């Protein structure tokens, strides 16, 4: 059905709002340097006819103050992105890993953070007391080390950090533009947990919001912490009213639409859909596919995201991908179970990304073949 006049005007207005984001919210200071690194990386791999995956990973923050003391965060440890990156590299891709600073990284993820402290993998040699890898972990670490060294030697992994949602959006746009010459060989795998609400630059206060009434500031111009609101001017997005902190956030434009329609029209685009209510997941994933007309939505529930995901695509319909029964749990005690009860307390014996990435790579190979007018081999 053709869009009605009103619908059409509405969508034009939304597009303008999205473009407007980049004129009203400032470019991050190190953007040009990061884009230059990416351009060199992409050109190198384009010349080698390699497929390039841009993986986003980790949560974006929403600062409440320009000189930031307080911020709102989105949940994501970076496990999905970092683990997937390793499997994309294994599948022959070059990977741009756009990640939240200090979240999990490919390869080092095996030995970082509280559950995998690297010190637990080390021991003193009984011969000379030197610090060495415990014999129990030699084989596993040797494999990880070899793959890490290969990625370094072949220059197939580029790490680019972000912290705020603003940095994320500027980087995503800039990188997408750089990836355009790759055509269908470019792939976007959007696993980052992106804020839906934010503080626009013009409503951001400069200094730390003062909780004590004695220090409340009266300014309303974005440089103070006062409630303001006179003469139609909107109050700062985060401000004190008596003893209460008021936070009034604007919606983040749905940039996925711009990515699909304008920034990366030839690339394969995969978004993730995170839900906590199981009854909503399939509908929301279908809705996202219809709304943005990209290639694939991967739905996951917060509690079971390491055990099962739902693929929703036009070509493939709906398909669950699950860690095979019997290989589902690897508890600290080594006990193996089948159910998904108490899953948060356990780790699956198989990384579900080892099943997700080959499926995605297969779909991508078909898209590339189609764009070149041939059948996939
Ligand atoms: O890192 P882990 O701990 O392993 O967790 C992984 C994960 C659960 C975070 C990951 O698998 C996941 O689901 N990531 C997407 C989470 C998310 O942002 O979902 P959403 O429903 O808010 O957004 C869905 C999609 O819309 C996203 O792919 C995003 O690209 C897009 N979006 C989001 C916000 C926005 N303003 N515009 C968008 O286009």
TrEMBL record:
InterPro entries: CoaB-like_sf. Residues 211-235 are annotated as: Disordered. Its EC number is 6.3.2.51. Keywords: Ligase. GO terms for biological process: coenzyme A biosynthetic process. One of its GO terms (molecular function) is ligase activity. PANTHER family: CORNICHON-RELATED (PTHR12290). This is Phosphopantothenate--cysteine ligase cab2. The gene is CAB2.
């Amino acid at each position: 059905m053709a869009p009605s006049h009103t619908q059409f005007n509405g969508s034009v207005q939304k597009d303008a709002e999205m473009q407007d984001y980049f004129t009203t919210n400032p470019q991050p200071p190190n953007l040009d340097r990061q884009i230059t690194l990416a351009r060199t990386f992409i050109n190198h791999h384009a010349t080698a006819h390699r497929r390039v995956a841009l993986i986003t990973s980790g949560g974006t923050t929403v600062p409440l103050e320009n000189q930031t003391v307080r911020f709102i965060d989105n949940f994501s440890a970076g496990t999905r992105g970092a683990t997937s990156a390793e499997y994309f590299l294994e599948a022959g891709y070059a990977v741009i890993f756009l990640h939240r600073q200090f979240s999990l990284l490919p390869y080092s993820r095996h030995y970082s953070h509280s559950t995998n402290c690297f010190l637990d993998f080390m021991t003193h040699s009984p011969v000379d007391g030197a610090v060495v890898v415990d014999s129990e972990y030699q084989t596993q670490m040797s494999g990880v080390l070899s793959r890490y060294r290969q990625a370094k030697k072949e220059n197939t992994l580029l790490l680019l950090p972000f912290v705020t949602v603003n940095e994320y959006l500027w980087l995503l746009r800039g990188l997408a533009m750089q990836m355009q010459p790759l055509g269908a060989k470019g792939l976007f795998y959007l696993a980052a947990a992106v804020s839906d609400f934010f503080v626009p630059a013009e409503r951001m206060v400069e200094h730390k919001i003062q909780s004590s009434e004695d220090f409340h500031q009266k300014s309303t111009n974005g440089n103070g912490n006062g409630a303001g609101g006179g003469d139609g001017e909107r109050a700062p997005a985060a401000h004190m009213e008596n003893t209460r902190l008021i936070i009034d956030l604007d919606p983040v434009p749905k940039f996925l639409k711009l990515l699909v329609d304008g920034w990366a029209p030839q690339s394969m685009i995969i978004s993730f859909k995170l839900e906590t209510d199981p009854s909503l997941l399939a509908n929301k994933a279908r809705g996202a596919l219809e709304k943005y007309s990209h290639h694939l939505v991967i739905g996951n529930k917060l509690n079971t995201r390491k055990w099962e995901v739902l693929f929703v695509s036009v070509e493939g319909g709906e398909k669950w991908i699950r860690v095979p029964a019997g290989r589902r749990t690897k508890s600290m005690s080594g006990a193996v179970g089948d159910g998904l009860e108490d899953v948060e307390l356990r780790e699956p014996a198989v990384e579900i990304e080892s099943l997700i990435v080959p499926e995605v790579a297969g779909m991508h190979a078909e898209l590339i073949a189609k764009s070149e007018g041939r059948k996939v081999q």
